[in-house]
């Protein structure tokens, strides 16, 4: 039970780490127009926080049971995913950086504690095998997380696009007003009337698609939040470790 629970928590942690590392910069570049450099910089503060937290968790691991640290870390990671569900078109750089820093606080609480808890009760001759399995869980979880996020993103984008398109009705007054305003904008830019109307139609279609994509990313963060919350009951299944439970050296 001890090692199995640790394996599943590490599986979830790998999914969260790799899915957010891939799809958060993708969101920033595709929907907010960030360059690859700025999208990477939005993740950088989280990396600095993670490094600092490694030292803090090292001190806490000898005083606090691993299962409590894992629960706390999972709750903080879930909170960071919840924060990202409030993303909107005018979200600033520091909103994403702050959410990533929250993630950086919770992640080491899980990683270090899993190392401590997973080796508890494992015979000394099998620690290498246990270490390999835990590493495999992280890598496999990462692949699962990326695949799951991609699947949710694709399906939910189609869903949101179809629902939003239901409100883009040519006979509706709001649609006609928007079309007229956008057409006038392109006319002011020097386009002919027919060309301006075509550009207005294209702009409305692109806007619907962009909104659908943003809503789909929000759904991805909801799913990742649920995965993080799922690690909390698994942590409760872990038994207490005597003497702070320092991990074996091998």
Describe this structure in words.
- By secondary structure, this protein is mostly helical.
- About 80% of the residues lie in helices and about 0% in strands.
- The protein contains seven helices and no strands.
- The longest helix has about 45 residues, at about 195-235.
Labels describing this entry:
single chain, 250 residues, mainly alpha, 7 helices, disordered C terminus
Beta fraction:
under 5%
Radius of gyration: 23 Å
Number of helices: 7
Write the H/E string, N to C.
HHHHHHH
Which runs of at least 5 residues are low in confidence (pLDDT < 50)? 244-250
The whole-number mean of residue pLDDT values reads: 89
Structural class: mainly alpha
Shape: elongated
Portion of residues within helices: over 70%
Number of strands: 0
List the helices and strands and how they pair.
Elements: H1 2-31, H2 36-60, H3 66-84, H4 93-118, H5 127-165, H6 173-188, H7 193-236
Helix pairs in contact: 1-2, 1-4, 1-5, 1-7, 2-4, 3-4, 3-7, 5-7, 6-7
Brief description of this entry?
The chain has 7 helices and no strands.
